[in-house]
Amino acid sequence: MTLIDAALWLTCHDNYLILTHTRPDGDTLGSAAALTSALRRCGKTAYMCQNPGITEKFRPFTDKFIAPEGYTYDRVVSVDIASSGLFPEGFKGEVALAFDHHPSNSGFARETVLDDSRASCGEIILSLIGLLHDGPTKEEADLLYIAVSTDTGCFQYANVTERTFLAAAVLARAGADTAGLSRLFFRTFTRPRLALEGAIYSNLRTFHSGEIVANIVTLDMIRTCGVTEDDMDDVASLAGKLSGHRVSVTIREQEDGGCRVSLRSTGQVNVSEIAKLFGGGGHAMASGCTIDASPEAALSALLTPIEAALDGEST
Q1: I need a labelling partner for 210 at 20 to 30 A (CA). Which of 46, 76, 115, 277 fits?
Q2: pTM of the entire structure?
Q3: Domains with residue ranges and CATH for the chain
Q4: d(CA 190, CA 53)
């Protein structure tokens, strides 16, 4: 479905539930909240699905849009979700329309608007709002600036394009609090978060002549540093600050005995192909998966295909 088709479809129906992915980040939450607001301005009834993974940092921006208990909806629209395995805890149902920018999108929805040239789903929703209205409100601009900036590492990642900066300019012109939001999401950290960063940097491990850097965040580290889930934003980017690497691996130990894995690449290796081997996916330079194993076993399993990809790239 094209974006124009999607805009028409949205104006022809009503009673929407907007779905965000599990372990929600700024892109899925900002995009979903902005879409919910834009639909309400069209006279539609729209709410975001309850997502127990929303952290305290995002709640001031999302709480007013969350569906009340017992809300009855007719159609579900997902934002920034690549597969049904990423549905939030508690949701079961069919998705009528999906907006996404992940090339690994599984096609789980009846209709999909997919543009993998966009650095964030927020850019897609901004274009959609331009079709539904003249442009975003100040509140929607704030929400979409959160989406765009957080999914690009404050415009540092390789996924940033000319269109990303143009989107940011549109949002700034619409009144987005670029300075305040950047300070909140990129320059303000708790003491426990800073302690965790110190532990991470102290325990970085390198492999394959320094081309692979790995970071394991254990449950013991989390408890010792006293961090909460709200302190864990963008932890996956920390290992990638080591010079000389090509692929960074962040493994976070889980209470159930498994691990959450985040993979990042400087461009030479398509880490989405690595993640797919373990049932995950994402972008060529940023992907993730879950591995039902100990952190050390997960790292060992990941190193083999990553090293093979690096060796293949160099030949």
Answers
A1: 277
A2: 0.89
A3: 3-186 (3.90.1640.10), 191-314 (3.10.310.30)
A4: 19
